[in-house]
Amino acid sequence: MESTQTLMPEFYFKGPISALLIQNYGTSKRLLVGEGSVLAVYDLSQKIKIKEFQMFSSCFKILNISMSDDAEKQSKRIIVKTEKSMKVLDQDNYSVIYDFDKHGHDKIVQEKLVGHNLYIINAHNFIEQWDLSSMTLVYRRFCEEECILYSADLNLQNNLIAGGTVFRSILIWENFSNQEQQTETSKVLYRLEGHAGVIFDVKFLKQNQIASVSDDRSLKIWSIDLQEHGKYHLVKEFYGHRSRIWRLAELGYNDLLITVSEDATCKIWNQHSNDNRAIETLKGHQGKNVRALSCYEGLIATGGDDGAVKIWNAEEILMQKQKNQENNQAIIHQYRLPMVESKNQNMEEGIANEEQKVEDSVEIQESQESDVKQKKKKAKVANPKDQVNQIRAIEIIQTIDQNNNSIPYAIAVTNKGSIYGIDMSSSDFKEPRLLFYDENQLNIQDINALTIKSQDKVINLVAISIGDGIAILFKVDLQQNLVQIARIQTCDIKVLNVFLIDESHTLNEDQIGLIASNGRAELIKYSIKNFNDVDIVISQPTIYKVEIKTQFICLVYSSKLNIAVAGDTKGNLFSFDFSQTSDQPLLNFQQLKAHKNERVISLFLDESKGQLYSTSKDNYINVYNFDENKQIQKIQSIKEEDLNIIYNINMMNNKMVLLGFYGNFAYIWNKQENMQIFSIDTKGGNRPLKLKIQEGTNIDEQLYGKHYAFAYSFGDCLVLCNNWLYSSEEEQKVVQSQYTIRECFHGREILCASGFSLKSDKKIILTGGEDSFLKISEYSTNNKDFKMTQSFSNHVASIRSISKAKYRSANLDEGFSQRTYYVLSAGSRMQANLFYAKLNQDNFEMSHLCNFMRSSEQDEEQDFRIMSSAIICHQNQGETVPFVICAFGTSSGELQVFTYHHKKRRLEDLYKIALLSSILTMKKVKVSSNSYAIICGLSNGGIYVLTLKIDQATSQIIVEPSAELEQVHDFGVNTLDACYLKEYNSLVIVSGGDDQQISLLRLELEQSDEGQIKITMKGQFKQYAHSSCIKGLVLSKCNGQLKVASSSYDQRYKEWMIDGDKLVETKTVRHCMSDMNGITIIKSIDQQSSEVCLVGQGISIFQMK
Amino acid sequence: MGKKAKDKRDIYYRKAKEEGYRARSAYKLLQIDEEFNIFENVDRVVDLCAAPGSWSQVISKRLKEKGLDIINEKRIISVDLFEMAPIEGCTIVKGDITREKTVQQIQEIFKDQETQLVVSDGAPDILGDHDFDQYIQHQLVLAALNIAIRLLQPGGTFVAKVFRGKDINLLHRQIKMLFRDVYCSKPKCSRNSSIEGFVVGKFFIGKEAIGLTSERLNLWDALTTINHLKNFEKIYYQEEEEKIEDIIPFVACGKNEEFDADMNYSLKTVVTTHKKEDEKQQEGQEEYKYIEPRQKPIDPPYKAFLAKRNELNNNQ
Ligand SMILES: C[S@@+](CC[C@H](N)C(=O)[O-])C[C@H]1O[C@@H](n2cnc3c(N)ncnc32)[C@H](O)[C@@H]1O
């Protein structure tokens, strides 16, 4: 019976993690990971993979890994289960002790092993006991109730079975007992009703308690009365997950329960807590679904559909959290800024008008807020004295006083033309002091401060924007007075943001820049020389603007890159390079669609990391970095769920801090630990406007408390505090209490892939998915090593197609060749991106060229998208730049062709035709030295061919429809591939459809005198190939033979040979990957071997025969 | 997505609303009928997993067209787990089709008379765990098959929704044991690249021919019996892969000029076909009106959760 044979995996597979087990291994701990049919063993202290086994044939997914229930530690074994069979492994060397297979046809829901007794609960609600030593069935017992179980648990002490059904109830019935042998079935002893959906997991706890989780997003704890059958009660009910809860486990520490969910989080629950909320939420997985969970004495392992495995030290995390709460005793001061008495009573009306004007133009505010405002306005009319001094913006600076002490100093500006300053140097901050007051009580919209350190003096400068287009520049003197240096009329409308930048490139030149942004999407930039002098020089402004009708809401400036990034009302980011100057308005900018048609509310730039953050009304937090061309690249998009509106984002001590709302409460929220720092009940009134955090590097810690000070304003109420968050040593521990064992790949389904091969055994794989990321990974054929190297986030929605076109290959002097390609990705929201890739010996580099987005708001609502794409790169003799032509097939049946303009870096219209069906797939084939065919597969089963000819002499591109083949398939053509056979002058097209068939067409090409390409059908056949829709198809030529590879949702990959008018199957692979969406084949450079890459719920790579 | 957006996206959803069907699924049955003539010689029908009832509406209409008395004689039984609004001529049974009790209830209503057509449009409402969804779907088809075995007259017809996923070959083979002709069909109104398909079994070979005589035949028994007809273990455990010749024929149903389910149509597109030309023209110019769907969706399982969340929000 014993066999030590364990296999090396035949496949490389990276996909959803389906099972995990933390194993106590001598003095250390190990982690067993089930990913597809492969079991991987990791050492947790060294965080390395030790071994890998192919546990089952590739079509069986590991669904659970558990320890046997033997009392003795040393006699424990490991059970690895798939749908209908399992293997029992030795806990030391993982050799197979028992191979339990072929017991029947039902799905195993739960298994338990004690000695050689194996208990299995089956989906049809019956239990079996097997004797593994003889592989015989001891007994089988049905529950009287016929139903299907999703989950179950067996309690051997009480001899009870808890079955979680797919229809809301938990059935508790008795396991086989000798006395009742006569009766055939077991009665249901307790029927726990209360869940509103499928019971995804159920567990017996101590003291006759049972825990269960469900489709209804709740965790429930039940208690049954062992004395009286049928009697039970619901002890507790917990809520918190935002989606289905898949699994439940006991932490093995303080009676805590752990759950994992479809919302990609893991939560910690205290059974005995007074409220019904989780005590901690562990976030970190990408995309959707965390299904795998294992706990061991305070340690949690989670595995997600994103392929990541994370370890959390729950004990540490909770202790740290408590400590943080204790430490978090910030001293908070709130101020109400007094109205400055108006000297002129007649002014009142004027003020009201001004206020009115301001309110009308402040579009930064939520629309829902307008109600509140409306009410306020009415109140104002009734009694003008009630007008509030609303804080518009704040700033914290460090000033130096006469005794050379640095003093943290907060400055707030109001809509009534006043500026207040508050000295924060002592723990009981001083009262606000009026620094500036505008006679006309004009609205001050923004303030920005700049500290210039030149030679040994430190100068603090402050700029405000006031009234219609006026910017005032001040210097802060030693008594913290504002001394006006300049007053500039920048434009005739309100300036929303002002910014000061340091332009003193040389030490003796006192030059700064002032930027004002307004509601016409203009950035107006002045250079101010000798600001510290009487002969101050203000330059003519340079105007940076966009042609689009929009408004800039927020602005950040990077001194490193010398660019400014503005966020607008439509979810776009625009970046402007200030190294360009001109008398004319400059229209050069990068535009990035960052948020879905919702205003960008705030931006934050972390200069040290080179990262940019944006928040928007759509409640997503986006993270970006900048590439070498200063182009903004989105790297992450996080949906914020703890706050409803995020008004401001900041980083502190590497932690993300948000200012936002939830209900009536305004919060300052520590996003990293998911806890509140401060909250205030706004009673539906004022909304916070700004949050500023100042790192107190110059502030004397002994004198002024800990490292930070911050300020934020709630309308008329200014809140200041210092001494909060914890020091950085403690920070370290938090980071250590969690780590990643396997990195995340795609957070959602992979929809398309493409690949390259480098000279060594290295392959490059590009994948695009529902998670909108384009990822680049390296794969080594020799050691099956897979590593993600780059991630592009230019897309805002699913990427459905990736295509490439070779530009040229050059043999460089060093004896190795370099190849360059154009790469095109396209997908939902009518978006596409063009890249340029450089390959040599063992290096792959890809850079972004341009973004294309043709979606109007209406299109988005209708969900129009690019379903398929193709790219052509053609170089005419004598020309320096190639023609780059991109074709898109859309869901609305449009076939659109564009050319890439190298200088303008954008796609320009070339040709467009409306077909009657969606274009599901597309391929390009070169058919002569200067012509190409674009072949489209349609949703009505037809195939459409377009030809493109590039005239050598005139450089004109002639596009013409060439063939329309109806009903090639009985249903949609999902995938196709084609090649041109020169010797026959014909085009071979293979296609795979929803009708489960592969069709093969041979078309003869004929070039007429006028240069038109005529196509005639020469041969055609079609044959069944799969039992479900065919989603992937590749045609390849090998020793003059045509070969086809196909993949389908029936979870099979097949290889075929074309033999006359027949396809002959040469290989079949069954694989447990769901949603097999496509295949890409990567040939090695020497063309000797090929690797198959299947993508879907994960990626699987293996050798082609 | 707004209400109108769904209208724009899904032309069959609009068509159903305009033509009075409770769900777009109606067109699936209509298109299958067009191809397979499933109502031929039929006077008694079982509609399994019927809610909200659009298939039952189609069935009721068809039997009435034949001139059958569906009001006084019980000829149509519609079964679902959930409540369903009444439909003319349909006897509604609320129950789980995988349970023996439900099967007996159906038998009692028909007073042990045989039927000629059993249809099932059942689908699990879990959707999220691929493997389990497919497993449940498979079980629902087997349960429907079990009911068909017990109620169908030899020569009868069986239609069931299947997921063409992992174990579809196995399921096809199980159905092939019981019917002379088996097809996999896909109505034009189904979306492309979906695993959904409909298996159509024609000419039931009869209980006796299978060798089922047992009086009480629950699902598990039926399952094991079906399985033992052929050695399925071999197939399941990959020792034997299905041959290409064994793939059951695929039949696309619905006329070619039908709307394409994958396309997005403008709201101006006229969807109802039985109107006269000039009427159509008028319609085209009229402003599109949003019509509420006939049957509101059933409460989701997370309804309580939503309430809880709102409560929490408000209490803050
Ligand atoms: C797609 S709907 C059917 C639509 C229906 N044919 C129509 O045209 O209106 C699937 C139905 O299957 C039902 N169902 C799922 N599992 C069931 C079971 N075990 N027993 C009975 N009904 C079930 C669900 O309640 C759901 O109403």
From TrEMBL, chain A:
SMART domains: WD40 (SM00320). Keywords: Cytoplasm, Repeat, tRNA processing, WD repeat. InterPro entries: tRNA_Anticodon_Mtase-Reg (IPR051973), WD40/YVTN_repeat-like_dom_sf (IPR015943), WD40_PAC1 (IPR020472), WD40_repeat_dom_sf (IPR036322), WD40_rpt (IPR001680). WD repeats lie at residues 192-225, 238-279, 299-313. It comes from the Eukaryota. It holds the Pfam family WD40. One of its GO terms (cellular component) is cytoplasm. The keyword Cytoplasm applies. It comes from Stylonychia lemnae (Ciliate). Belongs to the WD repeat WDR6 family. It is found in: Cytoplasm. Its main location: cytoplasm. This is Wd40 repeat domain-containing protein. The keyword tRNA processing applies. Residues 353-381 are annotated as: Disordered. GO terms for biological process: tRNA methylation.
UniProtKB/TrEMBL annotation, chain B:
It comes from Stylonychia lemnae. Belongs to the class I-like SAM-binding methyltransferase superfamily. RNA methyltransferase RlmE family. TRM7 subfamily. This is Putative tRNA (cytidine(32)/guanosine(34)-2'-O)-methyltransferase. One of its GO terms (cellular component) is cytoplasm. One of its GO terms (biological process) is rRNA processing. PANTHER family: RIBOSOMAL RNA METHYLTRANSFERASE, TRNA (CYTIDINE(32)_GUANOSINE(34)-2'-O)-METHYLTRANSFERASE-RELATED. It comes from the Eukaryota. Keywords: Cytoplasm, Methyltransferase, rRNA processing, S-adenosyl-L-methionine, Transferase, tRNA processing.
